[in-house]
Amino acid sequence: MRILLIYVLLNLMVCVLAADIFVPGNVSVELYVDDIPNCQDLAFDSNGRLFVANDSNTSNQQIYIVPAGGGSWQYFGPVLTDTDAIAIDPRDNVYIGDENGRVYKVTPEGVSSLFASSFLGNVVDIMSVSTLGSPQQFITGSVLYVPFDMTFANNNKMYVVEAGATTKGLYTVDAAGSVSLFVEFPGPVSCIFDPATNKIYVGDVADQCIYIVSLDGNVEVFATGIEPRGMTIGSDGCLYVSDRLNSSHGILKFEGKGQLPSADFDENGLVNLFDFHIFSNSWLALDSDFNWNPECDISEPSDNIISFDDFVVFASQWLECTHAFSFN
Length: 328
Known about the structure:
Layout: H1 2-17, E1 21-23, E2 28-33, E3 39-44, E4 50-54, E5 61-66, E6 74-80, E7 85-88, E8 94-97, E9 103-106, E10 112-116, E11 126-129, E12 135-139, E13 147-152, E14 158-162, E15 169-173, E16 179-184, E17 188-194, E18 199-204, E19 209-214, E20 219-224, E21 228-233, E22 239-243, E23 250-255, H2 273-281, H3 308-316, E24 323-325
Antiparallel strand pairs: 1-24, 2-23, 3-4, 4-5, 5-6, 7-8, 8-9, 9-10, 11-12, 13-14, 14-15, 15-16, 17-18, 18-19, 19-20, 21-22, 22-23
């Protein structure tokens, strides 16, 4: 028994120490672009070029542009300060936000102009801007204090990651501007809605993790060991993430949607002793028992009892380590 335990622990250590980033087994990760200092927000244009915000508090900074398919980046747009927010419209106009509450517009021909201003105030709210650059208040007096990123889903709601309020997390905003907490997270700074799965990726720098959130509020772990400062979905359906933890600030490409093993009860990307502890606490439990845990009923089909059939599935996934990648 002691030898078996040592063997299990050694396997666990190998799996954990093998690399830095862990993702589900059907997901691959590659370094799309390396060495982009202070990479933050991301956006693709219709030609597949990737624009990367520059989250630097120093003056005389520009955002970055990466050619389609990857490659060496170049500076782009006007020289500004702390250009950590970008967006691109259907006509490939690039909008760059700076720390002084201004938004600049850069046309596909490279012509820069001030698009909108007057975004600063004593209370941090969310404003809407018309196509002519006229800002107006959209959310005022809400619980939001530092709304880092936002995305729109196909349910006519906007989702905002809030990292500075008393309760940090993913918030919903309806068409009338009403704000409510959707899912609480310790340090969310980026988010993007994936229309292929109808789910939202949320990047959390406190957990160094990317979560997947369904529109009904279910949360799963997608990747760990990453500092996801910005995210976007490419035309290829892949998730692109600006990461400051691996590869000396770079853009990572995640291919595959991912699904955690059914026996990964704690959703940490690995079926191990922690999951076995959860499983054993419900051993032989019926759905009417006090120790019943429906997540442990993993046999196919489920039969409302935690029994040997579930153990067979659990054993088949034992030490099933999510794919691990290292870029150091």
